[in-house]
Amino acid sequence: MIQRIQTVFLALLAIAMIVMLFLPLWSKTDATTGETVVLSAWNIKSYFLNEQGEPDTAGTIPQRGAIAIGMLAIAAAVVAVYEIFQFKSRLNQMKLGLLNTLVLAALLGVSFYYAAYVGAELVQAPENGAYEAGFFMPVLGLLLNALANRFIKRDEDLVRSVDRLR
């Protein structure tokens, strides 16, 4: 049924993935020039910051696409929403939960790859950069997906135990 707790977890997962599309994932600042590279779900851009720390002008580094992050986040949100409406078949929900786990793990891996390798090469600075709030959304998604899968399995076990008693 749609009013179960796993529906709340799956809805929160979808919301977290949509929010990830609009938050920065990673940033790194070159101390000598003041140029900051920011990774979002769609691209890697560079900016020069003003005195308040806000982006002022475009940087010298050309923009690079990171569309794989955005597409994986959308895929995870779509699978979660579709999984909500598969409440009549808990086995299908469990399969979709496994698929979503794989998509979220791939999303986390691709985000880390773009932050640690692609973005880090663009700015010469001794530190690794700062992981922003959007970077942790796939981790939150994995946690919410695991909780949803646990409660789906609990419902399936309950139905099977009741069927044995008949």
TrEMBL record:
**Chain segments annotated as transmembrane:** 7-26, 65-85, 97-117, 129-148
- Transmembrane helix among keywords: yes
User: InterPro entries from the entry?
Assistant: DUF4293
Q: Does the keyword Transmembrane apply?
A: yes
What Pfam families does the record tag this protein with? DUF4293 (PF14126)
Q: Which UniProt keywords apply?
A: Membrane, Transmembrane, Transmembrane helix
According to UniProt, the name of this protein is DUF4293 family protein
Organism of origin: Pontibacter oryzae
